[in-house]
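Table S7 (text form). Paired inputs.
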Amino acid sequence: MASNLASLPEVERLSPAVVRILGGNPGKFTLQGTNTYLVGSGPQRILIDTAEGRPSWIAALRRLLEQEKAHIQQALITHWHHDHVGGIQDLLGLNPSTTIHKFDPQGGQHPIADGQEFEVQGATLTAVHSPGHTTDHVAFVLREEDALFTGDNVLGHGTAVFEDLGTYLQSLAKMKPLVQGRAYPGHGAILHSAPAKIEEYISHRKQREDQVLELLASGDGDSMHAKGGAWAVMDLVKIIYRDVPESLHIPAAGGVSQILRKLEAEDRVVLESEERWRLRDRSSL
């Protein structure tokens, strides 16, 4: 886990209707751990995500429910990654009547549709299908707070990874105007302005794309990195991420590859032999 991350308590009330329970799984990619959220103010609550199944998480959740004199009516899953679904069986062991909802449901789970509403006392949540990080990714608008549970599309620290950049950017654009208030991310501390952070993410991705295009435009036969004007992904990474520890260059290469695939779909770059990329029309830049 990055040393500059703020310390977060295992359980913290963030608003009258939202309590965060950390998953007990801190790490390089999970930050302080996966955030799960108990939502509502009455005896029946909604849980967003179930972390990865660490004993400390279910124990903390059990204590919290006893203190709140509440039980979980529904669990809403933002996406399929293990650190968000791994605690489902523990949750059902705690309360077998809990219904599990997911966009692409698996055995016994209930589907989530884009725009579907889930309601308990003190909280109305609207599902927003927002693929990109994963194809089944869903965010949730909390109407009473004008707030957004962003899942892993937007994090409380750093940037998110994605399976498809073009789809991810479309989802960020879809999410940005939905609320004016805070964001409750899948990892990291809460963000006080969801639209500002989403715009920051969009701008960051545009900056990275511009850097890739500039390097492709600069490549020529005399370049130490480019062969005849074509670049390997890792050579692009070594320049664009030169201030980032080399241990992070491999995941960064995934992001650069996504940029190149997006540009290829837009007919702006060409993939050549030896996994090297060049501009399709260098005179256009």
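Next pair, protein 2 of 2.
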Amino acid sequence: MAKRKEIETDVVLIGAGIMSATLGAFINELEPGHSMHIFERLGKVAGESSDAWNNAGTGHAALCELNYTPEKEDGSIDTKKALDIIEQFEQSKQFWSYLVKDGQIGDPKDFIRTVPHMSFVRGENDVNYLRKRYTALQQFNLFKGMEYSEDPEVIRNWIPLVVEGRDASEKIATTYTELGTDVDYGALTKIFIDNMVQKGNTELHLLHEVYDLIREDDGRWKVKVKDLSTGEKSIYHSRFVFIGAGGGSLHLLQDSDIPESKLYGGFPVGGQWLVCSNPEVVRKHNAKVYGQASVGAPPMSVPHLDTRVMGEETSILFGPFATFSTKFLKEGSYWDLFESIKYWNIVSLMRVGLRNYELEKYLVQQLSLSFEDRIEALRVFYPGAKTEDWKLEEAGQRVQIIYKDAEKGASLQFGTEIVTSEDGTIGALLGASPGASTSVSIMLTLLERCFPDRFRDKWNEKLKTMIPSLGQDLEDNAALRYQVRAETCELLQLNWKEPVPEGVEIAENA
């Protein structure tokens, strides 16, 4: 029997998606001498959650996503999450801009374009909510420039498909901002990984599956890998491991057996899009239009009518419609859910199931929809939609986090969660929205948790070169906000023009 190949490395990245790619891009800048190996079970990069067809691609900045600004019991609008997310997306744009300036990204239009972000609501109650949301957000400098209208003619000018054929007596309202973007995270992932491989310190292994993680006595990790094309097995000894395998991360985190892994379970939710590629329809819509979520719906299921640019093709997507499968990945196994159930999380799973009746009811309703039912849902946004212009496509598969809290008990989490070991030698990312849009902020948090001394001392100056707002608040720093947004929009070729803040002097050549 042939001896298994054993390799020493500094870093192992599991999953060739946007999270691993972003972390790898950071490590290449901060520790250019480090060796890295990326393992991906599929035959291509960004084949699961990061693929353009599998995620919203919105460039989530809380400009249009109503679930980030819930209405509180007293009727006021909670803006905290929206402020956090827009700051985080600004960090993403700064990092991408740095890479453009450094020559590591050629044409930014390969992955990002200006597409207006809009919220759209119907009926007296939701119009009142949107008006309050707009007023609340206008208190903050980061949201300045957003417009609000209840005038059908103004709205028609922004999004004609949404107004044409609509009952004139129906009360509607929208917000509009050209600060919004459309981002192809699959294309961005490929750019990052191509750069890493070309620099010579990174090896990409497609059709390779990590099937076990074992902590070694010296603190390193033994990473067991199988080549799915040949069946050959190898062992990699790594000083640091990141699990960025989307829905597959939970299983690998459980395999690591770190105490932190005992706090988590998962519940899978899939999706489908209605897609229109008819050029006559597509050219009449240039916006990402988000509505109100149904009662019980997870955040990834907030309905939206999106302009999407993927390569040379522009389409309109509507949805997503929720689906259910026991798979944790689109290309996963039907045993994924059952294999994630352990003696330490089975009680939590049962409690969450009992407490989330509205979510379960919503999923049952979604699963019972016919194609025509989906078209009727589309017509709430686009009254003149013709059935023959649309087709149904599978979207991505997500795993919502089930977290066991000692004080609050088990709960279903709808965000993203970074899990790291106490010694900082392994980290994982669980969860979904806003996900890819805040990948830079998420990976900065992971680096700070796992390498606190280096983050604070050795890397600090370099990080601030890449992300000028790091450690600062753009909301309250007018000069920095103007400088950062002006530079990122220029480098990323975005159409937004940041208004000059009051009291800030701008040089004539700026």
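The chain has a mean pLDDT of 90.
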